């Protein structure tokens, strides 16, 4: 007690005083300790005599063993369910992963302070040539986003530890454009991101995508929207309804058939809809093969059946189809001028939360690696980051 009363400011002089006090206190403390030890010893012998008498000797040993074991197990606290996985690597196969990712709490609200995050999930072949632009976009917004990357299994990512992309690669498999393996890769990304209970929104991007607004605007736009953004239109003609196969009935009827680009933004509820689906998946796997491009139909159609009231039916990712052909235009160094960016920001209208809005796109594609340099140059002025 006395030693605690001595404040730091009193300095060296009092230190000697404390020491002499302590040496007088010590024998008394020792005596108290020995008495306590004796007391505990007696109590323990009475207790063990009691145990031996009523339960037999053999029960005492497992009791002690289980106590010892518990000390080495991870304490079963809430923290375990709240904290994001420390590593994105795991040994689950897709069946196991999707099962685990489909766990959904039944109660409203969270018994801890949950700051909802946006999961940016990148579906890539390998490198991320526009990474420096994204690094700038994410800078200063830690805790509001998480990143997941699915690349070809053969690709060995080498981001430095300072990068936001460092160790954000998930276990992957080969994915081919226009095939079901592409949807599998997207589901794998969603499932991995669902393992972090704080991820509330999920944005699918590719290595050719860029952000068009700063992070604050993107976060506000998405978190305040009543709807999720996925293109889903009922398109007549050969490239829309023409790709439907009536073998999909009765799970999918022609009036349910939707088309949209795969670059979506969805909330947690829709992400679970996608990874838990076993009703529509087999139909699409069997009856939507090229020239039916499954990545343009499976999620839009399935979500329009399951959760139509949650969909804005439009995408947030701008793309230029004006040049015609099977692939959208790719922009390189020569295309990136200030005038070029006007088309993203001027003369656009769309519906946001049932109101007209002039902000319709938050992301754009497709950009070649050569576009990086001019993009970095214009980013602050044009995109605000
Ligand atoms: C994952 O492993 C389980 C158990 O071995 C097996 O039943 C299941 O078919 C596997 N799934 C895949 C997609 O390989
Ligand atoms: C984001 O952009 C908006 C509008 O361009 C601007 O008002 C805001 O300050 C920017 N936020 C940050 C964090 O730079
Ligand atoms: C498709 O039509 C059939 C018969 O009209 C109906 O029973 C079924 O529920 C429909 N399916 C969907 C997904 O609406
Ligand atoms: C999107 O389309 C579905 C029908 O597929 C409709 O029920 C829903 O209201 C539409 N969403 C909006 C925001 O209009």
How many beta-strand segments?
9
Q: What is the level 1 CATH name of one domain?
A: Alpha Beta
Question: What name does CATH use for the topology of one domain?
Answer: Spore Coat Polysaccharide Biosynthesis Protein SpsA, Chain A
**What share of residues is helical?**
25-40%
Shape: globular
Number of helices: 13
Bound molecules: 2-acetamido-2-deoxy-beta-D-glucopyranose
Strand portion: 5-15%
| Radius of gyration (Å) | 30 Å
- Distance from N terminus to C terminus (CA atoms, Å) equals 57 Å
Global mean pLDDT: 87
Largest sheet: 4 strands, mixed
Q: Please list the strands of the largest sheet in the order they lie side by side.
A: 2-1-3-5
Low-confidence stretches: 1-23, 56-64
CATH architecture of one domain: Alpha-Beta Complex
Secondary structure category: alpha/beta
Give the helices and strands as they follow along the chain: HHHHHEHEHEEHEHHHEHEEEH
In short:
One of its GO terms (cellular component) is membrane. With 385 residues, the chain is α/β, with parallel strands linked by helices.
What does this structure look like?
Its main location: membrane. A hairpin with a 2-residue loop joins strand 7 and strand 8 (355-357). Helix 5 (94-101) crosses helix 7 (180-194). This protein has helices at residues 2-5, 11-55, 60-72, 79-82, 94-101, 131-138, 180-194, 215-223, 268-276, 281-287, 298-306, 338-345, 372-383, and strands spanning 117-123, 145-150, 199-206, 210-211, 265-267, 317-318, 350-352, 355-357, 363-364. The relative contact order is 0.11. The strands form 3 sheets. Strands 2-1-3-5 form a 4-stranded mixed sheet. It contains 13 helices and 9 strands. The longest helix has 45 residues, at 11-55. It is an alpha/beta fold. It binds 2-acetamido-2-deoxy-beta-D-glucopyranose (4 copies). Residues 227, 304, 308, 311-313 line the site of one 2-acetamido-2-deoxy-beta-D-glucopyranose (NAG). One 2-acetamido-2-deoxy-beta-D-glucopyranose (NAG) is lined by residues 214, 216-217, 384.
